[in-house]
Every structure is written in structure tokens, then in C-alpha cells.
């Protein structure tokens, strides 16, 4: 029975990881706040956006290709994680290019709140990056857990487990770095009197609740008075603000003990 459990445990872990890995990746975003367009300025930054868009599109195609192969076992879950990691890194680079171009236009503009706009652009760039860093941390943790589950069966080496553990810990530190930068920019905005009432973060999307028609209470043969209620129209923003929740509980150093037996 114990032997059967040892055989089935890695299989269950791989199936669970595959289900999680097939979740939709976080897409790139649009810079906030909006900066007035300037067609003749920031050409270098505009070209950088084009380059990063091409690289992101390539990473997305590769991710979709591998994702389609996983159900038939033509590609492994770990290969899918690697492709998703590359896609997230490409999204970060594309977002950074977009924000750099917006910051360039803001610097050349004449907005009286130019300094607040610049700080807000940096804050939202970091918030957008945070959502992607959390995904990178999740992927690294899943990769480490999968290797740890397979170590006892000899399917992976102890060195590979250690390599994945280090990659997870690095991803965790990188996420913490972004969170620290976010707090620093928030403090800069709070300490600047000119930015006191400036809307520095992207507005939270508002949901539209469909109205329901109550059942008729009129007697047969009578006509109820007609009343028309106009519901306000709300428009969903094209991008979703990443979560700014406190750091995850994975900040604590890993205490997972590796088995002492060689694979």
C-alpha cells in the first residue's frame, strides 16, 4: 500500500500542476494615467514598443503551441511553465516600453501636474509588473513542488530540485523588490503637496448589474401605469488593475526538507 502511495503521489501532483498551468496568463496593460499624444516626439521609445510587441507576440505563439500539446502528452507541464514564464517576462518588457514612451511624452508636455503624472505612471507601471511577478513566483513554486514530489522516484536529481528551489526564492525576492518600490513611490506622492488630490491609481472597474423585471401584480383586465426607469450606463475599462494585496505568506524562508536518499 505504501509503495502504491509513493507511485501515485507524483502523478497526482503532476495532474494538479497541469490544471493550474493551463490558466490564462496575465495580458499586457495600457499605461495610466493617459498622456496627450505627440506624434513627433519620443521616436526611440515608440520603436522600442514595436520591438517588444513583436517579442511578446512570438512568446505568446510559443506558449499557445506548447499549451495545445500538453493534453496529448506531446509536451510536458514543465515545458509549459517555461513558455509561460517567457511570456510573462515579455509582457513586463512590453509594459515597461509603453510606460517609458508615456513618460517621455509627459516630460515634453506642459501639464501643470507633470510631476504627479510622472510619479503616477511609475506607480502604475510597478503595479502592473507586480501582477506578473506574482505569476512568475507561482510558476517557480509549482516547478519546485513538482520536482520535490518526483525526487523519491528518481525521476529528477537532487541538483535539479535545488536549482528549482533557488529559482523560486529568486522570484519571491523579485516580487518583494517591486512591492518595496511601490511603497517608495506612494510615499513620494503622499509627500508632494501638489499631488495630494491627484488620482494616481487606475480607477477600480465597476460592474453593471442587470435589472430584473418584477412579476406583474395587476388584476386581469386592468392596465398598470407604465413607469420607465433609466439605468445609468457604466463602461468597463479595457484593463484590469492588478491586486495590491499585502505580500503573500510565501515570504517566509522555505523550510521544506529534502529527502536524504539519493535518486
3D architecture notes:
Residues 191-263 are annotated as: Disordered. Helices cover 57% and strands 0% of the residues. It is an all-alpha fold and 263 residues long. The chain has one domain (2-24, 38-203). Mean pLDDT is 81; it is low at 4-20, 208-250 and 252-263.
Q: What topology does this entry show?
A:
Blueprint lengths: L1 H20 L21 H27 L7 H32 L5 H38 L6 H34 L72
Brief rundown of the structure:
This protein has 263 residues and is mainly alpha-helical.
Total strand segments: 0
Structural class given helices, strands, pairing? mainly alpha
The averaged pLDDT comes out at 81
Residues in helix, %: 55-70%
What portion of the residues fall into strands of 2 or more residues? under 5%
Measured distance between first and last alpha carbons: 21 Å
What profile does the largest beta sheet have?
Answer: none
Q: Which features does this protein show?
A:
263 residues; mainly alpha; 57% helix; elongated; disordered C terminus
Amino acid at each position: 500500500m505504501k509503495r502504491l502511495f509513493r507511485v501515485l503521489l507524483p502523478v497526482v501532483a503532476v495532474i494538479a500542476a497541469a490544471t493550474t498551468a493551463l490558466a490564462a496568463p496575465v495580458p499586457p496593460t495600457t499605461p495610466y494615467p493617459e498622456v496627450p499624444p505627440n506624434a513627433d516626439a519620443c521616436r526611440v521609445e515608440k520603436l522600442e514598443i514595436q520591438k517588444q510587441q513583436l517579442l511578446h507576440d512570438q512568446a505568446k505563439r510559443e506558449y499557445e503551441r506548447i499549451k495545445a500539446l500538453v493534453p496529448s502528452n506531446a509536451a510536458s507541464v514543465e515545458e509549459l511553465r517555461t513558455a509561460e514564464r517567457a511570456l510573462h517576462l515579455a509582457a513586463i518588457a512590453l509594459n515597461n516600453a509603453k510606460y517609458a514612451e508615456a513618460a517621455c511624452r509627459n516630460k515634453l508636455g506642459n501639464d501643470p501636474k507633470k510631476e504627479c503624472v510622472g510619479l503616477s505612471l511609475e506607480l502604475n507601471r510597478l503595479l502592473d509588473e507586480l501582477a506578473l511577478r506574482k505569476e512568475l513566483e507561482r510558476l517557480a513554486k509549482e516547478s519546485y513542488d513538482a520536482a520535490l514530489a518526483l525526487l523519491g522516484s528518481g525521476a529528477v536529481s537532487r541538483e535539479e530540485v535545488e536549482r528549482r528551489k533557488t529559482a523560486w526564492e529568486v522570484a519571491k525576492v523579485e516580487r518583494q523588490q517591486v512591492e518595496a518600490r511601490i511603497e517608495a513611490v506612494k510615499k513620494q506622492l503622499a509627500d508632494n503637496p501638489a499631488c495630494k488630490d491627484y488620482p494616481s491609481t487606475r480607477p477600480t472597474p465597476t460592474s453593471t448589474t442587470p435589472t430584473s423585471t418584477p412579476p406583474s401584480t395587476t388584476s386581469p383586465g386592468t392596465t398598470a401605469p407604465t413607469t420607465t426607469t433609466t439605468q445609468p450606463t457604466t463602461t468597463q475599462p479595457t484593463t484590469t488593475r492588478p491586486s495590491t494585496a499585502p505580500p503573500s505568506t510565501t515570504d517566509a524562508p522555505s523550510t521544506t526538507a529534502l529527502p536524504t536518499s539519493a535518486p
